[in-house]
Amino acid sequence: MLADHPEGLAVSDIARRLKLPKSIAHRLLSILTDCDFATQDPITQHYRLAIRTAALGLRFFANIGMERQSG
């Protein structure tokens, strides 16, 4: 879901979209943030994916040979 919202989302929006209690959504986001897979904007408090998440996806594709399968 965060990949579809590069501007980030508020924890309340995330909880509503995932149909989770806000406390559970916040805990999951805290874990993602602690592991550097998500970041929280200090001004808006919105959560978005961190660069590490994209890097992990690129590494995965490189390891399965996706870069050779273009076209």
Q: What can you see in these coordinates?
A:
This protein is mainly alpha-helical and 71 residues long. The protein has a single domain (2-68), classed as Winged helix-like DNA-binding domain superfamily/Winged helix DNA-binding domain (Arc Repressor Mutant, subunit A, Orthogonal Bundle), CATH 1.10.10.10. 48% of the residues lie in helices and 8% in strands. It is built from 3 helices and 2 strands; from the N terminus they run ααββα. Strands 1-2 form a two-stranded antiparallel sheet. Strand 1 and strand 2 form a beta hairpin. The longest helix has 13 residues, at 22-34. It is elongated, with a radius of gyration of 14 Å. It starts with 10 loop residues before the first helix and ends in an 8-residue tail after the last helix.
Topology readout:
Blueprint lengths: L10 H8 L3 H13 L3 E3 L6 E3 L1 H13 L8
Antiparallel strand pairs: 1-2
